[in-house]
Amino acid sequence: MAVAAPKPVDDADLRCVAAVAAMIGTLDENKADPEVVSGLTAIFMYYLGKVDARYPGLDYAAILTALLSAPGYDRQLPVDLRRCGGEAEERGAMLKDLGERMKSAVPLNPATRPG
């Protein structure tokens, strides 16, 4: 017997998309630190990419609206933010480490190195 595929609304990564979208939505774009906005946008795109790979063509507006307005989601949001933030920190540390290792493994001429 085949196991039913999980519904997108039950997807932990989709809940991260929703949680980060909610965070971004609370920012005052005139006062928000650009680094905070950039970091949240990167995290949003990370989770969006994971979800999109599993559910191509997903109606994000409809499903995120349903998820964010679901009864009790206000209690789930802090839990999701902690979980998603922890994973994002782990991935960020992994990427930083990878970057350092790649600099050592593939030294570039400083004059041609980007940035």
Q: Which outline best applies? A: elongated
Order of helix and strand elements from N to C terminus: HHHH
> Termini separation (Å)?
54 Å
Task: Evaluate the radius of gyration.
Answer: 18 Å
SSE class: mainly alpha
Q: Tell me the domain tally.
A: 1
**What's the number of extended β-strand segments?**
0
User: What is the overall number of helices?
Assistant: 4
Q: Sheet bearing the most strands, described? A: none
Q: In percent, how helical is the residue content? A: 55-70%
Which regions have little confidence, pLDDT < 50, spanning 5+ residues?
A: none
List keywords for this structure.
mainly alpha; 115 residues
Characterize the structure shown:
The protein has helices spanning 12-26, 34-54, 60-68, 73-105. Helix 1 (12-26) runs antiparallel to helix 2 (34-54) and helix 1 (12-26) crosses helix 4. The chain has one domain (10-103). The chain has 115 residues and is mainly alpha-helical. 68% of the residues lie in helices and 0% in strands. The protein has four helices and no strands.
SSE inventory with pairings:
Layout: H1 12-26, H2 34-54, H3 60-68, H4 73-105
Helix pairs in contact: 1-2, 1-4
Summarize the structure.
The protein is mainly α.
